[in-house]
Design goal:
single chain, mainly alpha, globular, disordered C terminus
Length: 207
């Protein structure tokens, strides 16, 4: 919404804002699901049970991606009607809503890498990656907005999510030696729990 406010007229900002809220409402499921399994996942890793950890990761990742897929299909069919409930002025946000749902799907594909990196003490790395992604989204949206209007926000979000999940996957593997995203579940070299999550650095200590 912040990027839209900087680049679009007020009426279009309102349209984008509604699309973002609807997409975020569905995306909340993935975040909540991941939070629910963190305790069990940490326990499996602590007790050196890689098969149990892999099962938890796989089930959670598949469930999150499936929910986003169903929601995307639902919005594709009913999206204009749902937006119309809030007023005819919001119906033009249909395409950007679908694009934002695709971005949510990409985030779901990223799995629990963010949580794993955070648990391993990589918060500073996450912060730097987040800042870089924001700059990319802002730059791309600024470039596309004059030609595409509100749809520029959707395409910029997709690009930002691609960069985000790729960067976080690389940082997670570098930091703890393995990854928790859906693709990594099918890679033989991704040996879950090969080494334990490192302790979080003390305050003031470099990561």
């Amino acid at each position: 919404t912040l990027v839209a406010t900087m680049l679009l007229p007020k009426a279009e900002v309102a349209q984008v804002g509604l699309a973002i809220r609807l997409a975020a409402l569905v995306g909340f499921f993935t975040q909540a699901s991941q939070q629910f399994v963190l305790r069990d996942l940490a326990g499996a890793l602590h007790h050196r049970k890689p098969d149990e950890a892999r099962s938890l990761l796989l089930r959670t990742n598949l469930a999150c991606v499936a929910v986003i897929g169903v929601a995307l299909a639902g919005f594709a069919v009913l999206g204009k009607w749902i937006l119309g409930i809030f007023g005819d002025d919001y119906v033009p946000a249909y395409t950007v809503l679908l694009l934002l749902m695709v971005a949510q799907g990409l985030r779901a594909l990223g799995g629990l890498n963010v949580h794993l990196l955070s648990l391993g003490g990589g918060q500073r790395k996450l912060g730097r990656a987040c800042l870089a992604v924001f700059v990319i989204i802002l730059a791309l949206a600024s470039l596309l907005a004059p030609m595409m209007g509100i749809e520029a926000i959707g395409w910029a979000a997709i690009a930002g999510e691609l960069v985000w999940i790729t960067a976080v996957a690389g940082l997670t593997r570098e930091h703890i030696g393995w990854r928790g995203d859906l693709l990594a579940m099918f890679l033989r070299r991704n040996q879950i729990g090969r080494k334990p999550l490192p302790a979080k650095p003390a305050l003031g200590e470099a990561p």
